[in-house]
């Protein structure tokens, strides 16, 4: 049987940055449960994913009852469901047992859990009060959850495409400029090509908010110049949060879910009618941070255009100094 320590769990499974809800309210418990599960059981990540869904459906069943005690139990079950949902990825990283199917299953079950709990929570309140606003609230919660994750995935995909093109252009420019130096008889610094490749190195960040970590001189920095110039104070706040592993996107899809399915039921157990106002506040917070992400993305596309323009000029200048056979592109920028 394995003998993973708590430090092993933290070092090998904690993300460099995560939602503050996860860092402060989930990881302290999840890490200890992961250590026990990895050392004492044969439970697989996919089994944990299924368990998380079942607990989420249990939370939904409690929400549907719509009375105070069941709202409290539903909120607790939802938190435990999310804890299991975090554990599956940690077990996969700790044991190296992750799979493409497991990632797909985790994503689909997350969406099913949100759909079921939104319908149960708001449907239960509608059944109790007859207020049709709860039905619209259910539609709003499901729509916002879908919008949030679709937008995050699309931005992540486009930024990957931009980084890939910048990487190819940087490598091509570096190779062509090195060839120009050699043709002139100049001795190129040994680190020239290596530094160019280093500047093209990217830090993968599969977080839900899809923000990019800025480390050293890399295309991520080039893609965020506009935002950093407009808001120089942002880097200080970001760095302070990152020291605690908390990402700057303070109200993401995770906090939105927890606001709707944990905070709102807890408050509503004592103050009936609080579910819609608390859900609305959570939605406004998430949308505010989503607009910030979209604004940063818009600025990064402008930075990308400027950066690619400079790289294309470097490539064109280098090609102009080389014979046709030597100026053949090394890597395509298209």
UniProtKB/TrEMBL annotation:
Coiled coil regions, renumbered to chain: 159-186
Keyword Signal: no
Membrane-crossing residue ranges in chain numbering: 50-78, 132-150, 250-268, 274-298
Keyword vocabulary terms for this entry: Coiled coil, Membrane, Transferase, Transmembrane, Transmembrane helix
One example GO MF annotation: phosphotransferase activity, for other substituted phosphate groups
Keyword Transferase: yes
Pfam families reported in the protein's UniProt record: CDP-OH_P_transf
Xref: InterPro entries: CDP-OH_P_trans, CDP-OH_PTrfase_TM_dom, CDP_ALCOHOL_P_TRANSF_CS
Protein family membership: Belongs to the CDP-alcohol phosphatidyltransferase class-I family.
Protein name as it appears in the record: Bifunctional IPC transferase and DIPP synthase
Origin organism lineage: Bacteria, Bacillati, Actinomycetota, Actinomycetes, Streptosporangiales
């Amino acid at each position: 049987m394995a003998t993973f320590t708590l430090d092993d769990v933290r070092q090998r499974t904690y993300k460099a940055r995560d939602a503050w809800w996860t860092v402060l309210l989930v990881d302290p418990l999840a890490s200890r449960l992961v250590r026990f599960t990895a050392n004492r059981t044969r439970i697989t990540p996919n089994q944990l994913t299924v368990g998380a869904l079942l607990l989420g459906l249990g939370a939904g069943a409690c929400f549907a009852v719509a009375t105070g005690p069941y709202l409290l139990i539903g909120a607790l079950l939802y938190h435990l469901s999310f804890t299991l949902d975090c554990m599956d990825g940690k077990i996969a990283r700790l044991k190296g047992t992750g799979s493409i199917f497991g990632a797909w299953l985790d994503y689909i079950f997350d969406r099913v859990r949100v759909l079921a709990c939104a319908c149960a929570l708001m449907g239960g309140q509608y059944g109790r009060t007859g207020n049709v606003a709860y039905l619209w609230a259910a539609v709003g919660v499901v729509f916002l959850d879908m919008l949030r994750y679709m937008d995050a995935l699309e931005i992540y995909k486009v930024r990957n495409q931009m980084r890939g093109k910048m990487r190819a252009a940087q490598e091509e420019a570096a190779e062509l400029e090195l060839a120009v130096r050699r043709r002139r008889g100049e001795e190129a610094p040994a680190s020239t090509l290596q530094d160019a490749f280093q500047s093209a190195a990217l830090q993968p960040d599969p977080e839900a908010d899809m923000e990019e970590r800025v480390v050293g001189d890399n295309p991520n920095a080039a893609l965020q110049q506009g935002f950093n110039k407009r808001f120089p104070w942002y880097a200080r706040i970001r760095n302070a949060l990152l020291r605690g592993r908390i990402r700057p996107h303070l109200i993401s899809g995770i906090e939105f879910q927890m606001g709707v399915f944990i905070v709102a039921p807890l408050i509503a157990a004592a103050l009936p009618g609080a579910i819609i106002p608390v859900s609305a506040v959570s939605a406004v917070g998430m949308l505010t941070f989503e607009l910030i992400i979209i604004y940063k993305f818009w600025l990064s596309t402008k930075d990308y255009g400027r950066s690619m323009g400079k790289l294309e000029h470097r490539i064109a200048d280098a090609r102009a100094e080389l014979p046709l056979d030597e100026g053949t592109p090394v890597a395509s920028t298209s």
